[in-house]
Write the structure tokens for this entry.
Amino acid sequence: MRLPLLALLARGPAHGYELKQDLEQLLGSAYPQPNVGQIYVTLGRLEKSGLIEGEDVAQSSRPNKKVYHLTDAGREALRAWFEEPEDEPRVRDEFFMKLALAPQTGLAEQITLINQQRRQYLNTMRQMSKLAAAEDRDNRIAHLLIEGAMLHLQADLDWLERCQEELEELE
Amino acid sequence: MSDERPAPVLRAEGLVKTHHGEGAPAHAVRGVDLCVRQGEFVAITGPSGAGKSTLLHLLGGLQRPDAGHLWLDGEPTDTYGEARWAVERRKRIGIVFQFFNLVSNLSVADNVELPALLAGTPPKQARTEREALLAELGLTGKERSMPGELSGGEQQRVALARALVNHPPLLLADEPAGSLDSKGTREVMRLLSRFHQRGQTIVLVTHDARLASAADRVISFFDGKIADDAALDGGTTPPRRSGISGVLELKD
């Protein structure tokens, strides 16, 4: 959450609740709604590490709100964020361990494990499809997020298929 | 109560099909039992070469099984010949294929109307049906186009209109998005879901899990046999621990 918040502040000063709304609007309903408390905590930490600065703004009928802006150090941190590629996603290693170890335990069948895992992925895939159908058609970023998640699942499903082909031959 | 239920739209028992080509015989379908009820949307997935297209061809009478039986609406099809199957494919079974199989020298309008006319629908009604379907599929204005002038996604929508013009109780789809880009895939997925919501029974063969997830039942097909047959409940039960939020979550 730290760097996305910095990135939103690169556009101009904003207060916590505004940032929450910006994030929701940008990422759409598929993204788990950020908790406003979590946002305030993160903003506090960012301020402590000197990446942003807050300024109290008086409001007539309500308590002061704190408007944050990016510091030079914050801008630098953001630049460094953009400069680095991210780690690649990892294979579902817990499932892989089950698959690899099942035969010697005599407690589970590999094919049963694969089928069970496939059902789980397919159900999630179906939920994604529903989310995609419900999402505002014009929110490209939100659709790309869902599509990315679906493509990852597709890859996991393809891999399950490979496991099944390979292991059924052994039977 | 179970006696009250209508006969399944489609029932298969012990279907077997072996292809005798040049090399060793290919056991495409090795004993398949299947029951598809009215209003179901069933996806059959599996790796290429698993025999899923052969299975679909058997279900649509495009190929005959070496062994086993098939019932349409409770009626045995064992005695059906080529001509009878052709009639069934006009009236009771609509089919869409990966490569659309439109008649290239007929206009879009004629491609859609032809099966209606062949099924004995009066020309005026065939036209009304065609107009309604093309409008529904976002193809109004393309009536006079020839298939070759359309994009792949548009051609598949014409093929869908053609398959549905006679209101068949059963729609079979063989890799309908297999030659489409991801936008076309989403379009096909949306349309199949929409027709399904209105009660259309669909059997879809696909290797694309995204497309399969539009169905409410997914059959995994491996090496000529059904490896798993799962009802998808997506949306009716809340996702467990990881599930959807785990997949979408952006980490701190």
Notes: The longest helix of chain A spans residues 140-170. The two ends of chain A are 47 Å apart (CA to CA). The mean pLDDT of chain A is 90. The longest strand of chain A covers residues 52-57.
